[in-house]
Amino acid sequence: QLQESGPGLVTPSETLSLTCTVSGVSISDDSSYWAWIRQPPGKGLEWIGLSLNSGSTDYNSSLKSRVTISVNTSKNHFSLRLSSVTAADTAVYYCARMKHGVLILLGSRFDIWGQGIQVTVSS
Amino acid sequence: DIQMTQSPSSLSASIGDKVTISCRASQSISTYLNWYQQRPGEAPKLLIYSASNLQSGVPSRFGGSGSGTDFTLTISNLQPEDFASYSCQQSFNPPWTFGQGTKLEIK
């Protein structure tokens, strides 16, 4: 399954760093991509970005300038870095597996999720 | 970006009732629509994918329908564990966007 880890409190203007440890499935699985999704308090879910195969990534344009997602296949985990955080980045952060759809991304779904980790941005 | 709008934002129902939750996309997304359940403190759970396909292990009292821009999640014979929040998500075009959620409360 998936388990997020990292600091629960981040100082404004600093970088948020989280890791998602994957167990029970290989992070190199050809039918899967790996995602970060967040949910600010009282709001809906927001997709942050994806790690695709061969080291490529895809990010939400609203966060693209601040986001980096990377994969460590030897440790079977993937990571999120979000720079220059503000209070607006306070949220529960989830990692999830994106299972391929009929045309890989088209028809895909987030079928396995981590429990989520609360991250608060505050001084 | 494709905007997803759910209605209602909350509803109350009783054990054994049947409820429907609606989700509307800002443009046609064919049948590329997923539904998730969220219980407080738990990981979101995939219920329905591609509008009407039941995810493995999900009880058959959950059903999905729709195509184009209008979709429905139906829950029959409500059970205590069904009182949770439900979100739709389009898988037609990135960025992958979600509805704002519908909270189902016990009456």
Characteristic key phrases:
heterodimer, A: 123 residues, mainly beta, globular, B: 107 residues, six-stranded mixed sheet, four-stranded antiparallel sheet, 0% helix, 48% strand
Question: Brief overview, please?
Answer:
The complex is a heterodimer of chains A (123) and B (107). With 123 residues, chain A is mainly beta. Chain A is 0% helix and 55% strand.
Walk me through the structure.
The complex is a heterodimer of chains A (123) and B (107). Chain A is mostly beta strands and 123 residues long. Chain A contains no helices and eleven strands. In chain A, strand 9 and strand 10 form a beta hairpin. With 107 residues, chain B is mostly beta strands. In chain B, strands 2-10-9-4-5-6 form a six-stranded mixed beta sheet, with no helix packed on it. Chain B has a four-stranded antiparallel beta sheet with strand order 1-3-8-7, with no helix packed on it. The model of chain B has no long low-confidence stretch (mean pLDDT 97). The N and C termini of chain B lie far apart (36 Å). Chain B has no helices and ten strands. Classes of the chains: A mainly beta (123), B mainly beta (107). The A-B interface holds A 2, 43-47, 58, 60-62, 94, 96, 101-102, 105-111, 113-116 and B 32, 34, 36, 41-46, 49-50, 55, 87, 89, 91-92, 94-101.
